[in-house]
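User: Quick sanity check before I run a bigger batch. Here is a single chain. Can you write out its predicted 3D structure?
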Amino acid sequence: MNIVEVALFVGMSLSFLMAVALGGNDAASPTANVVGARIMTIRRAVVIFTVFTMVGALSQGYMNMRTIGTGLVPGINLLGAIVIILTAFTWIMICNFRGLEISVTHTVVGSILGYGIAAYGTGGVQWGMIQTVVLSWFTSPALAAVVAFGLHKLMLALSRRFESWERSMVVVLTLALCYSAYAFGANDIANATGVYVTVTKIAMGSPPEGSVMFMLALFGSIGVAVGGFWLGPKVIETVAFNIIRLNVASATAAELANALIVHLFVTVPYMVIGYGVPISTSLANVGALVGVGFSSYGSSGINKTTVGTLIVSWVMSVGATALVTYTLYSLLLPITGPILG
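Assistant: Done. Predicted structure follows.
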């Protein structure tokens, strides 16, 4: 094996581990609501999560993979892809073992930003797209909170009017979990595999980009499933039980709001500008939980300490990974060159 083949093997291994970390940390986003409402065990919720995440990744994952691969910076060479994934993976795993749900999207975008500045200078970073993505991090949880608040009020009104609706909500919540997992796959699979689109295409002799992205989505989905079963339960417990008290009505409203917002941010921008907007499913889910929390209990029903800790970790993720990636890439480039790309 030559140096390029070795580097590709190392890079793809890191990408798989990144997918494992993604599944471990972000399985909580679609599953925490059904677990918190105590209508489903963690294991059963994770089974449903892995199946529908794969469906979403294979059918719509390419929308955000294009954004991660070429939308934020002009391109990502093999050295850059390895450094980005190594940095993001390390940060995510540290947070996984502490049971802290961070934003994987923030972590990956921060790493790409650090690489972009190191590789192209500040003028080479596509700041317009960066601004769109960062803006979505603020608007998506706010929209999720508003939608969840409205849906929860609707659920309560239906429960009061129709006696059978309470029993029906268990079915609706299960279906909402399937939709939420689908939206997660469409949005998040790019976080594990998107940085390898360019170098994989070059290494394979320039096959159609769609074929490359489908293969990477399948590869990443397997890693997400491993992570969901191995590392997911601890983080799921944090989100399910430490933010607000959930019942079937509030969990259903939060799940539907989270799924709808995530799916819209993937699909609508791609239809308009040709790039999906990768939002944080963690932020969207916590925003939805805050919305139903206000609807149920007012501000007193929300664990502000847990929410505050999560917000600090999300902000830290961007700055920390950008700095580490910038430093590592700048140190390694004179030694190894770009390797491929």
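The chain has a mean pLDDT of 89.

User: Great, the batch can go ahead then.
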